[in-house]
Structure formats: C-alpha cells, structure tokens
Specification:
This protein starts with a helix and ends with a strand. Helices cover about 15% and strands about 40% of the residues. By secondary structure, the protein is α+β, with helices and mostly antiparallel strands. Strands 3-2-6-7-8 form a 5-stranded antiparallel β-sheet. Strands 4-5-1-9 form a 4-stranded mixed β-sheet, with helices on one face.
C-alpha cells in the first residue's frame, strides 16, 4: 500500500503536466476579436497630389461620410473621429480581414475593399500590411504610421 500511493501521485502529476503543455495563454482568446481591436490609422489622399481629403486644409470629404462595412455585409464600425498624433491628423478604423471602406459623396457612394495582413505576436496580432482591392501593392505609410489610401473622386 505505501508504494501504490506514491505511484498514483506520480502518474497524476505526469498526466497533469502533459495536458498543460497543449494549452497556451492565447487559446482562450478569440483572434478575430483581437484583430478587430487593433487600430487601423489611415488618411484618404488624392492620388495625384497626396493631399488629405478628409482632415487636410482643403478637405472635400466630410468625416461622417466615411465608414467601414463588416465582411458579412452589415454596416457598422464607424470610423473614429480624426485623431491627432505628432501634430498630424488621421482617421482610425477597425483592423479586420476583408473590410469595405465606404465613402459617401454627393450623388454616389464609393466602396473600396481593404485587405489586411496580420501576424501573430505572443497573444495578440499585429497589422503587417494593407492593400486596396485587387492591387497587390501594399499601401504606403506616412511619418505617423498612418496608411495612405488613395481615393479618386
């Protein structure tokens, strides 16, 4: 009997340690939620001049006409109001796969598919690249790390 008790204890400890190896602190996190929580700083810019069309001095697009549409087609994820960082103004949107950026203008609505690439870093995700539509060329960033989304009116 004295030998059986340590044997059972040893087996229980080994079984418990094996099951813990499969679990990581990230398993309980919903990766889609983590991606949605990442900010997507951006500016809508004129493709020819590079001028900011929403928050620049000659802005022609009202902030409340810019929004995101979820991949399932539901509207939502309104763009946050312009944020100031390092004295530069930019817009903040959600970072999630297959978002559609919608810009309402007088008489028409323009939709741009925004493709975002992520990489897993510890227990969260990092936005590593953004493309628009079927264009394989990643968007450029400005000095504040805001993505420059070219927008033709």
């Amino acid at each position: 009997m004295p030998r059986i008790l340590p044997g059972i204890l040893l087996v229980a400890l080994l079984a418990g340690s094996c099951s813990r190896k499969d679990k990581t602190p990230c398993n309980s996190n919903d990766i889609a939620t983590l991606k949605a929580a990442i900010g997507f700083p951006f500016r809508l810019t004129d493709p020819q001049t590079g001028a900011d069309l929403v928050t620049g001095p000659g802005a022609t697009i009202p902030l409340d006409s810019v929004r995101f549409i979820r991949p399932n087609g539901q509207s939502g994820f309104w763009v946050e109001k312009a944020t100031r960082r390092n004295s530069v103004t930019y817009l903040q949107g959600p970072a999630a796969p297959n978002m559609v950026l919608e810009v309402g203008q007088t008489g028409k609505v323009v939709q741009l598919k925004i493709n975002m690439a992520f990489r897993q870093v510890a227990c969260s995700s990092e936005l590593t690249g953004v493309t628009v539509g079927d264009n394989a060329v990643p968007l450029k960033k400005d000095s504040t790390d805001a993505y420059l989304v070219p927008f033709s009116r």
